[in-house]
Amino acid sequence: MLRQIALTSKVAPAVTCVVGAHFSAPQFVAPSVATPSNLGNQKRKRLQHVFKRHLRGAICCDAFKSRKPKAKAPPTRVQAAPSALKSSCQMRALGNGPSAVEGARDRKPAAGEVYLPRNSERLESVQICGATATKSFNMKIQNPLIREFISEFIGTMVLILIGDSVLAVIIAGDNESIAAVVGPLGWGVAIFVAVSVAGGVSAHLNPAVTLSLASARKFPLAKVPLYFAAQYLGAFVGAALVFITYRDQIAHFDKGQRMVTGKTATAGIFATYPKEHVSTLTCFIDQVIATGLLSLTAEAITDERNFGGIPKQMHPICLGLMIMALIFGFANNCMCPLNPARDLSPRIFTLLAGWSTETFTLRNWNYVWVPIVGPHIGAILGCVAVQGGHRRPLAQPAATRRLQYVSGRALPAVFFFPSHPHPRIRSVAL
């Protein structure tokens, strides 16, 4: 039958198969006359292949048959998670194969694969069945809450360690003549270093700043207790390190008396105390104004809408200069605390380290609340002021007009921060 069709194909074109392409479809070429003399075994097999395979809609396998064998590929380096090699049973399953497993993607090594972590990771190798299985110990903390806690803790500790060390040089070293210049400079540098250390994660370093950002809906309210704990604990540890460093100098200066007030008072190294002629109300107003300026200036520095945004690399320098200016201007009344953690935690440490209860009972308990309450109120007021100064223009073109609608639950009746809408309000372009 096939031979008869081939011999009588003077009008109908011959059908051929294009070989070398995966799943190729049959093509029709120019007609050719097939005679018994030139119809060899190869052409006969090809015609049989065409009529039995392609005309029935089956898949062509010529591409696989005619393909040249590829050269042997080098050992494959695939990626797997370090957790894939936690147990010795899993490592024994690796075998002696040439393949290697590297990186940090979630996949267990297959048989014949050895885990090779990246160069930046710490290594621990185990020789099993002739193959070396290498485990990685990555020191990076994956939990963001733990990272933020550690960042705030270390940043606040560095801030208190440098700042209180400057005060120890001034007070315990009997260098009061340079206090007006060295004190602000030292605290400005302390802020620069602390923000540089913790700036990649958080760098609030101040409970008043954390609360003000949460009140402006720029920071999750649920994280406020975590940040408070890290900041107060970091300040306590920083004060303890200062005491350990300058213990002998403090003992030499105050003769071991651990005085809170007087000419040989050394409690001012760690906490803030007002001058005798300055009233508590004046100290409170001083802190509300100073911390309000701190919050307002910090918001302006970090706000991308202000002058197109100050580069983040400049934030530590700008914040350090800001603190330096505030201490230059507000240190006369009560040493310008500006930070509840900077005052309360070292104050608690001085009480535990041998100073008298006067650290808290000064003025019949009528001052200890000022460095705590004043900065919180001032920071919130400063944040409100900077938020109110960034309202959107009232007159907008029709093309940019927005329609706000409520999604979800009911909204509060009053919006205290109009430039930052409530998260349950969405904007839709008209």
UniProtKB/TrEMBL annotation:
The keyword Membrane applies. It is a multi-pass membrane protein. One of its GO terms (cellular component) is basolateral plasma membrane. Keywords: Membrane, Transmembrane, Transmembrane helix, Transport. The keyword Transmembrane applies. The chain crosses the membrane at residues 149-173, 185-205, 226-246, 314-332, 368-386. Its main location: membrane. GO terms for molecular function: glycerol channel activity; water channel activity. InterPro entries: Aquaporin-like (IPR023271), MIP (IPR000425), MIP/Aquaporin (IPR050363), MIP_CS (IPR022357). It is found in: Membrane. Aquaglyceroporin that may modulate the water content and osmolytes during anhydrobiosis. Belongs to the MIP/aquaporin (TC 1.A.8) family. This is Aquaporin.
